[in-house]
Amino acid sequence: MPSEDSKKSKITALRKSTSNFVTKSNAFKNLCKKVFKGCDRDNTGSINEDELYTAVLMVHLTLAKYAGPAACYPASRETVHNLFVASDDDNSGGIDLQEFEAIMVITAASISSRILSYYTLVILLVPYLAARIIDFFELLRVDDGLLKIDAFWDAHAPSWMQWFVDIVPDSLWLALPEQIISLIFFFFVIPKIFDKIDQSSTKAAERNTVKKSD
Question: Which entry of 11, 122, 131, 164 is 20 to 30 Å from 19 by CA?
Fold first, then answer.
């Protein structure tokens, strides 16, 4: 079983190897200080494990306001627990501001990669792929099937439902396929990409830590 000193040194090494332009910024450091102070309700200069998890969530939610959904992807409760145990080297049941900042750097290790990937997908890839998928459907003459459905709808749908459909602007119906495809990317594809980025960042950081310790 690794000693407390070795755990502590690994946390320090992980912090150095996982820092990025976001976590190095003064804004990020000030945010950590503000959140830490807010969670340190008894003003002891330390927070317990439950307060740490709350603080991690608060930091990521605040980052998401400025960086978008890519930043709103906090570490799991299990990960926070392991980091807390490794940082609480004196078994006092609490960690100080410096230790909290180190933990936040680690939990936000891949945030810059996720932000870059997210906006690349949103601005470039998703609209392009959506347009290409729609073009593919047109080649399959899906429009003919939709026209038949539309004719069946006009002949059999209740009048109140037809009225509801008619009041929706045509531009909205035309944009609907692209919106549906975009939602599929946002809810299914992008989270998978974020998982891969986080796994790659964690493995790379651990490899760097092992190399430095050797």
Answer: 122
Burial of 52: CB neighbours in 10 Å, binned 0-12, 13-18, 19+: buried
Tokens representing residue 96 in the block: 């100080």
47 bridge partner residues: 95
What are the tens digits of pLDDT across the range 61-81?
888 887 776 666 777 888 888
> What is the per-residue pLDDT across 71-109, written as a single tens digit (0 to 9) for each?
667 778 888 888 898 888 778 889 999 889 888 888 877
Q: Are 182 and 121 in contact (CB under 8 A)?
A: no
Distances (CA, A) of 156 to 24, 150, 159, 174, 208: 63, 10, 9, 23, 66
Q: What is the pTM of this model?
A: 0.57
Instruction: Give the Cα separation of 87 and 166 in Å (integer).
Output: 61
